[in-house]
Amino acid sequence: MVRALITDPVDEYIVNELSRHGVIVDYKPGISRDELLRVIPNYEVLVVRSRTKVTKDVIDTANKLRIIARAGVGLDNIDVEYAKSKGIEVINAPEGSTQSVAELVIGFMITAARLVMLQDRLVKDGGWPKGKYVGTELFGKVLGIIGFGRIGQRVAELARAIGMKVQVYDVIDVRDKAIKLGVDVVNFETLIKDSDFISIHVSLTPNAKHMISEREFRMMKDGVIIINTSRGEVIDTRALLKALNDGKVAAVALDVLENEPPREPWEIELVKHPRVIITPHIGAETREAQRRIAEILVNKVIKLLNE
Ligand code: NAD
């Protein structure tokens, strides 16, 4: 009998479907690291989201493990190379959350451009700040998308429908996709200098760490709005806080942080800032995305187990 351990909260579909296929499933979301290390030798399949860190010591202890399944996209919490070197398959469901993240980005842009978060806070505090802040429309503005993969492309499509001009930058050749969606491909500097909104959708590679830092903020348009739903490490948080306090950046919306939850003093100051929208990494946290991810993942696991 194949045994699967699930260590983070996932859609019940995964538990039910794996069981239906004869897999013995232990659902232990929130399991401690010590317990994980103690029980992992009993399992052929490990299902995680981003909380569980599948590091070398976990992999070394997991002597029966055949599959590590990430219910989501990012594999940065898994030592993929090491797992592969031990003959373990690492799978994910990258396409499952694209629409949910893209919709969140559009919501973030409107919320930031109209300072909804600030107006909401002031009214709740007993104020009525009508006429105090003048927002901007998205229509006709330039959206710069860094990383033109699945999510970047979907954001571009939705933004075009609203009437934004979209320019994109990627490290790979994305010209064909750009032509199809009616967007311009530009170099990194042009994107940084000429965008009214910048939304980041890169995968986290060593190159992407702090790719938006002091130098980039200096080059940006005054009053730029920054959206990050990719990975927190892409932006230098201290430089972002400074750019916000200097008035260079008008508003920021973040679904990800360098430390989740925030712990450094500058991160705490940033998330409390009235012009910052912060959500706790909820990009894929919709019923639809979780179900889609579950279906994709279960299909892949069953296929591999049957090979
Ligand atoms: P993807 O792999 O389809 O696209 C990523 C794109 O970024 C690729 O085209 C790649 O070439 C490009 N890229 C990589 N490094 C780059 C760099 N330094 N400069 C410019 N471009 C670069 O990934 P995706 O599915 O579109 O996901 C994008 C990001 O969103 C990932 O970081 C993923 O982890 C994150 N994500 C977050 C959530 C959430 O809950 N907030 C959910 C899903 C995905």
UniProtKB/TrEMBL annotation:
Residues 106-283 form the D-isomer specific 2-hydroxyacid dehydrogenase NAD-binding domain. InterPro entries: D-2-hydroxyacid_DH, D-isomer_2_OHA_DH_cat_dom, D-isomer_DH_CS, D-isomer_DH_CS1, D-isomer_DH_NAD-bd, NAD(P)-bd_dom_sf. Pfam families: 2-Hacid_dh, 2-Hacid_dh_C. Residues 5-306 form the D-isomer specific 2-hydroxyacid dehydrogenase catalytic domain. The keyword Oxidoreductase applies. The keyword Oxidoreductase applies. Keywords: Amino-acid biosynthesis, NAD, Oxidoreductase. GO terms for molecular function: (S)-2-hydroxyglutarate dehydrogenase activity; NAD binding; phosphoglycerate dehydrogenase activity. One of its GO terms (biological process) is L-serine biosynthetic process. Gene3D superfamilies: NAD(P)-binding Rossmann-like Domain (3.40.50.720). Belongs to the D-isomer specific 2-hydroxyacid dehydrogenase family. This is D-isomer specific 2-hydroxyacid dehydrogenase NAD-binding protein. It comes from Vulcanisaeta moutnovskia (strain 768-28).
